[in-house]
Fold each of these.
Amino acid sequence: MKIAIDGMGGDNAPKSNVEGVVSAIKEYNIDIIITGDKDVLEREFANYEFDRSKLEIVHTTEIIENEDKPVKAIRSKKDSSMVVALRLVKEGKADAVVSAGNTGALLAGGLFVVGRIKGIDRPCLCPAIPNVKRGMTIIADGGANADCKPRNLVEFAAMTNIYSKKVLGIENPRISLANVGAEEGKGNDLMKKSYEELKNMDINFIGNLEARDVINAKTDVIVCDGFTGNILLKSAEGVAMSVMGLLKETFLSSTKGKIGAMLLKDDLRKLKSFMDYAEYGGAPLLGVNGGVIKAHGSSNSKAIKNAINQGIKFAKGNVLEEIEDFVQSFKEDNEE
Amino acid sequence: MKIAIDGMGGDNAPKSNVEGVVSAIKEYNIDIIITGDKDVLEREFANYEFDRSKLEIVHTTEIIENEDKPVKAIRSKKDSSMVVALRLVKEGKADAVVSAGNTGALLAGGLFVVGRIKGIDRPCLCPAIPNVKRGMTIIADGGANADCKPRNLVEFAAMTNIYSKKVLGIENPRISLANVGAEEGKGNDLMKKSYEELKNMDINFIGNLEARDVINAKTDVIVCDGFTGNILLKSAEGVAMSVMGLLKETFLSSTKGKIGAMLLKDDLRKLKSFMDYAEYGGAPLLGVNGGVIKAHGSSNSKAIKNAINQGIKFAKGNVLEEIEDFVQSFKEDNEE
């Protein structure tokens, strides 16, 4: 098992990436190939003691920045840490790849460097948001495809069903459709047509779900177009962060508040950890011909380590083969 | 000035509706026509002392329930408190109408009983969500139209611009487009095309806004199709409610937590009031030929009173005439 990692991608790269790699090697005893400036990476790794035989550094000379235009960056920065890491998966030199870099570039790289699984129309990005049961809920698509057809949502549902079983270990994942009401027949044209398709699929489709119930752990996966997924996710993120900010402000505005907050320190930390993305690793890009895990841009070492673990499970779970099987059976069903 | 109110609509009707009416008569010295079962309403009003000459009760025999199919209910329950209240506005007997009843039915009633303003393609429902600056942000459309064309978003922007000035007293309302990124050219097909239209309008268009920034008071109005608006709003509501729930659970889980929570009681109440819909009145239905205010289904008397105040400002601000002026100038611009 060998995982590739983009050493220079992410707000805290290369420090967090290197630290995450060291933790992953120690914890999972796997082989890692990291891409990036060799001198810089060597200096970082020198701070840690670990089994160096598990690590390979592939020197790259370019970095894709957050401000770079995704498609242009992938095409022009051929020796960037991200493109080279993606190529390692494409060429079978690594079993999966993790990057915390430019999301748009990673999506473009997934398409142009790694390539789609034959028969899949559109790959989807599947971030997870924490729910009140201390679990997580997958949004598919979380932002890769702004405009979708019902066929795309069918693919998203099938692929996340496989991913949830094989990587997250959920036996019979509940899959729902993002909508404005629970009843059949609700929503926009896309959702009405997609409902008809999803209810006939061989998955545990639990119907429409309102956005307010995503955090209430009523589903394991919520399926939608990438525009809707982004709105749902970012709206939730914005409120969670603002409420935590207001809470802090409220507590610090009086002496009584400060004493109260001190007493509650541990409890508040628990609450904060519920909203901590680092706990949950990264978002898989499903539908491309290799394991590609997008770690959060602000990933710390723990988030990187967890994303590497996702990559390991992705490869071990034969997710790609399962998706290919779905494509085959889907094709046969539609030829009947 | 005369405001009509659906006396039987809402989870707390008729009690909260009656109490809200009494407060509004006292505070704003206006005339109210309330629709509903006369005996039931009389019994409720008997609990309060106020100037009865300001109140008229119009007896109705039917109630539209939350479970009723909207269009069917409006067409078949002609003597319902909601339909009769809407008809009062249509016939010019009231200057605006407030209802806390079935949202879908009120939308249908707005279209079929009150009717559209000539030249407006689609009316929009404009709920507001609280923001961190203790103000509010309008979502337009918040759920009336699941599928929209760019033309609809142009109308939503123009109408909320007028409403924000005339009813909310915002001098130069910031109007943004809900999107997945701030840069021009982002988003789905609808948003790309709508951006082109909005940037050429005579409004303070501040460009695309990500869903996470709605709560941060970066805009006064966010324009989108009703499907997206519903997802944005409900996702925010769900997280706000869940975080408050988790907070409570966390505080009550230990003695230290309980003491801390007691010390923080006043501060926590302040935080809760930030998320209190009652403070903010109702959502106007813009584009129909009369002032129609949808109060929250769970409105208490304060929310009803505030929604009545919105109706007063709507009528005083000549919002309808201003929308008609926009339609006229828009028509002329497109004929040039």
Amino acid sequence: MTGSPEDAPEGEVRPKGRYPKGVARRQEILDKAIEVFARRGSQKTSLRAIAQEVGVTHAALTHYFGSLEELLVEVYRESQHKPGPERPLPPDASPAMAMSISAEANREIPGLVQLYSTLVAMALEDNHPIAHSFATERFARLRDDIAEQVEQLQASGHVRADLDPVLVAALVIAASDGLQIQWLLDDGVNHEAALEMLDRLLRGI
Amino acid sequence: MTGSPEDAPEGEVRPKGRYPKGVARRQEILDKAIEVFARRGSQKTSLRAIAQEVGVTHAALTHYFGSLEELLVEVYRESQHKPGPERPLPPDASPAMAMSISAEANREIPGLVQLYSTLVAMALEDNHPIAHSFATERFARLRDDIAEQVEQLQASGHVRADLDPVLVAALVIAASDGLQIQWLLDDGVNHEAALEMLDRLLRGI
């Protein structure tokens, strides 16, 4: 009952991220979990299996992340923050091109695309509030960001002025997500060419 | 190879649905499972839970469907065959409009959209060959059908002639799938308006 302090401070129910040492340990587990996912995708996503691969006890994983759902969300969030190779976006890059570039980064880590699909599927079910918040907030934030970008591109004449920026944003995100899935299942699908075509359509050329 | 000809056509290995009585019972279970899904979505998709709701033993379910994955695929396939309300498609309906109409039918059964997302997420993992075949074949068939429709619409001047029909097909399917997911998570997303916009872009108006 008296676990080592950095692993399970006494009496705390959800102490994650409370003490510097705990924060460091949590981050260490997370980094390892990201590696595991990048290597193998999400085909064996039980907490126990991940704990085993990461080399921590199941109890420690549960202690730091609570549930598989929380760990999955954290792994995805954290992976997205990792700096990718430099891919400078041209100043007149349309939203579809921006999504294409970010999708390209994801495709280098197939496990990440699988993980994202799993999270979205979980989000659509009723009993996964954390995946639901994650997906809902991610889509809302992306729509806002891209809609703003669209307005600027409309002002500079790079996107058709008669299009609703919010609808364009929703369409571009949907197209990028959906094309990525089709490409993963069949690499004959030219994800990039389809987004470039959407790009041209949005520019009105 | 000596099964009754109408029930187990040559080349079918698995004995399920081999005898008329078995076929009827299998269909009965499937119909019940579809009802269960339509009512509750896929939030509790263990075979045991479904068996309980459907009112059959777990052994019987396993006997007729083999695995949860197979049952899910069958439930989705079968639901798609059910005749929906009449929605005549205008002769010059663009591909995006056609997808919008089929998506509208799905939205009336939210459980079906969840089930579809779950199947696609399973398909992206490594250990679900049945979901993988289902999703891969569904996308390939849809792309073929829609690409053919696009060619006809290009010939009649209803879709821009400079677009690659196969890329248009992949884009329209991706947009429809992705927008449906965004709408399910946030009903402020105007799925239909976004597809209508894509429609206009494809027509070049």
Amino acid sequence: MIATVIGTGLIGGSLAISLKEKGVAQHVIGVDQSAAHLARAKELGIIDEDATLEAALERTDLIVLAIPVDGLLKLLPQIMDKVKPGQVIMDVGSTKNIILQLVAGHPNRGRFVAAHPMAGTEYSGPEAAVKNLFTNKTIVLCDVKNSDDDALEMIENMVDQLQMRTVYMNAEEHDLHTAYISHISHITSFALALTVLKKEKEQGRIFELASGGFESTVRLAKSSPDMWVPIFKHNRNNVLDVLEEHIHQLEQMKTLLEEEDYDTIYKLIQKSNKIRKILK
Amino acid sequence: MIATVIGTGLIGGSLAISLKEKGVAQHVIGVDQSAAHLARAKELGIIDEDATLEAALERTDLIVLAIPVDGLLKLLPQIMDKVKPGQVIMDVGSTKNIILQLVAGHPNRGRFVAAHPMAGTEYSGPEAAVKNLFTNKTIVLCDVKNSDDDALEMIENMVDQLQMRTVYMNAEEHDLHTAYISHISHITSFALALTVLKKEKEQGRIFELASGGFESTVRLAKSSPDMWVPIFKHNRNNVLDVLEEHIHQLEQMKTLLEEEDYDTIYKLIQKSNKIRKILK
């Protein structure tokens, strides 16, 4: 089949590579509002051909929207207006509720499968695209009851061929869970980077001591604001909810440290160690 | 030379391996209050021999204290009381100020070199010891003016042979910098793990979606409370200082999100992206 990837950055580019490599698509068309990204994606062999959206829609089987979620709000309804019988649209957006509400009543809603692969890195653009980004990762498919059977089947087959693990959720569940498992990690990293950069400015020499633990905790602070501001906007209520809880936990640590209640700090750390069961 | 490692866990065990492998020591004696750790360290070939502290002190050239910083407070003065001419004592503790104040007036202060290798993992015990943990890592040597020339020279030679990069600091600087570059990362991870574990309990299914970004941010929450509570205790003022600043940054994000001031959030994320210059 022919696949079109709209947005040839980290996720779209990596998906284009995998679709070809795993034999899901024989030909991948790239569409991007950035001419530079598109040229680079072609140069790197990530896409077979670049085209306008209109030209791609003339002959593609699958359309994957791999753009920030604010762009999705504009482009998804336009593509759903133009989609032909048999064509399938998929997104890879990190938030789902607002988008699915927006297209809920669309006559071509059935052609759309809402997807969120839980994979990525802190880098962006076609240069960031890598082989096997999705292998053994989880993909969330949302509100699949509203997708046509054949559309869902195409995506489920694709997911199998990409060797991904599928989780089905409704949009509300998805947005709540990702706030806890992904969005808060980014806010924490951004805030921690700001904290340390500020101190470095006052004090200097801080980064001479940066080691693996620090790097691990702040690496997400390299992530693009173009991607993340729209996510925080779309998932504002859930993000505020988890942010409040996280601040509460930090305040608690602070109070315990002020009161020198080391026994309780010990117990809290022991409790947090239970995360071992979840992480490999 | 003969080296004695007191504490055969992650750091002491890894150091024992490297001392032998790089030819710094021909024989490594292990001392540990846990008989199980000591037996395991010998079984794994990390140490050549186990001994009591007293027996080891009879014939060792170098004594490395690789135990939590609260244990160091008790044991370091005792060992300084017993140290023989020519013997050198080194620690690997994550805090320095309290310990160096404690031994400031000791007649054998010159035999001690205060060191902190900026290397580790979230695991502990002899099983966690690994080859090359220290290669290309930074080691901080503190208040070296108070160490005897020959003692410092032995440690500097060792550090060279381990292929580490040396940074010299006074104890106050060290404790301030590590609060920002290491201790706060651990508090954040512990608090984030508690936040998510709490929500998981209420909500379930959260961890189905855990991916690399989450794992990276919370992996330090697997760290041992036996090591970390004493560090927070010793470095309480600096940790409180950075924790306050971090909470302030998170509160700012929260307020901006409440007010839907996405332009300012965008600018803050851009600013935090400057961490790219520091991280590889």
